[in-house]
Amino acid sequence: MQKYLAEPDVTRMVFDVVRAQTLSEALEQLSSWRFDAILADLMLPDSSGLETFQVLQRKASGVAILVTTSVGDERAAMEAMRSGAQDFILKGSPDFRMLKRAIRYAVERKAALEQRDQVIRAAADGMVVIDATGIVRLVNPAAERMFLPASLLGRSFPYPIRLDETGIIEIPRPPQPPTLVEMRVSPMSWNLEPASLACLRDVGEVRRFDEMKTEVAQRRHADRMKDEWVAKISHELRTPLTIIKGAVTELAEGAAAPLRPDQMTLVGMAQHQVKRVERLILSLLELSRLESGATPLVRGRLDPAEVVHMTVSALQHAAAQRAVILTSQVTQSVGPIDADADLFEQLVMNLVDNALRFARSRVRVRLARGTPSGIELSVEDDGIGIPADKQGLLFSKYAQIDRPRGPEGYKGTGLGLAICKEIVALHHGVIKVESAPGRGTAFHVLLPELAEEPSEAGRPEPAHAAGGSL
Is 241 strand, coil or helix? Predict the structure, then answer.
């Protein structure tokens, strides 16, 4: 391996490799030299398990660390990933080319994360990173000054976390009056786990009107920049994801060599996770296009009954896998609508897919005339329902309501219903939810019917494909 890494390849990438037999020797090398990456064996003569990674991380916090582990002993490697390792490699893999790629991607990803942390630390506003359990993982200097003399790092965040909402919190500063701070919480990822970024701004002092107007404009611009950044990152992830997907598919098909059953299990796990990330990227890109108005709305005469029948038929296999009965009911009085065919199909697909995830035994799709006009599309499930105080979050980005996961153990990205809301708004319609604990959930979409018959010459063809998932 050391000889291969030191040789140039088609990417002209060459590694200078320094080998250490023990953790103590590795720490001496880290004290003497600057390294771009560390490939750490979690079973060394003088150290083993997660402790090996933790010691190296404390010694070289700015260096990308990849860990190696044996098949069947991936738990420590996954714990290391959650603690900040960039990747893990299974021992005995003969593909050194893939190893080179993994090291390169790890170095690039570590550099991107370091830049992100530098931006957070240098921000004039207070920034606090909170993990999914509510523990504070990063506090920038501006936030530290707000909470002095208390320290937040490593402790539970003392205020409610409401994603994509802006509110005012009071920070006690005895014997002085409490400090009024505006807090906006956004979703983010921290060490491959869901987390939240709380942005804090001191609003205790009275500001003049024009200053407030400027601030609002700046915040809107910042929100647009964040949305554009998310869209750009999602787009940039598609290329490496495609490479990973292709490599995993070749492994599954035995292109390198026939796989043992335990190896096939690992490859299957990888394929499943690649599909999850692919669905997330597609949803992020589609939502970004809808919110920005970049998605062209190609309207035309559309038979909604045909789309409903086609979608229900396409999802019958998925329903059967979940032991759920999926039915549809269309009244004869339903007329055509003026809609984008691809977006309407995506709307129906997302709503039915969402219902299948949470249904216990039945999902029903109904299409009927609306009151007093238009059409009404209803998708009902017999799940445990949603409390009234949670229903307002359903159409927010990244919302995850506390409902039982589907049989596949995956609740979704939290973007599907937000996409549905944007599609309905583009068609000047209304979407609402009807639910109660123990009584299931029903989503109702009201859309206007076709106002007048479009001419054959003026009817455009759909130009974009439906996508996205919940």
Answer: helix
For residues 307 and 344, is the Cβ–Cβ distance under 8 A?
A: yes
> Which residues, 6+ apart, have CB-to-CB distance to 352 below 8 Å?
311, 312, 315, 326, 363, 365, 379
Tokens of 320: 């059967």
Structure tokens belonging to residue 447: 């859309």
Q: If DSSP codes are grouped into helix, strand and coil, which group holds residue 198? A: strand
Per-residue pLDDT of 191-221, as tens digits, reads: 767 899 999 988 776 444 556 677 778 877 7
pLDDT in tens, 71-130: 666 777 778 877 788 787 777 665 666 777 788 878 887 777 777 778 888 888 899 999
The alpha carbons of the chain give a radius of gyration, in whole angstroms, of 26
Rounded Cα distance, 362 and 18, in Å:
60
Residue 324 per-residue DSSP state:
-
**Structure tokens given for 36:** 């771009």
Query: Which string of b and e fits 181-220 if b means at least 16 CB within 10 Å?
Result: bbbbbbbbebeeeebbbbbbbeeeeeeeeeeeeeeeeeee
Q: Indicate yes or no: pTM above 0.70.
A: no
Amino acid at 183: M
Task: Determine the Cα–Cα distance for residues 108 and 385; give it in Å rounded to an integer.
Answer: 44
Element (H, E) at 238: helix 209-252
SS3 content of the chain, % helix, strand, coil (to 5): 40, 25, 35
Asked whether the CA dihedral 338, 469, 229, 213 is positive or negative, the reply is: positive
Q: What is the DSSP string of 342-409?
A: HHHHHHHHHHHHHHHHH-SSEEEEEEEE-SSSSEEEEEEE-SS---GGGGGGTTSTT---S----TTS
Bridge partners of residue 43, in order along the sequence: 48
d(CA 466, CA 470): 13
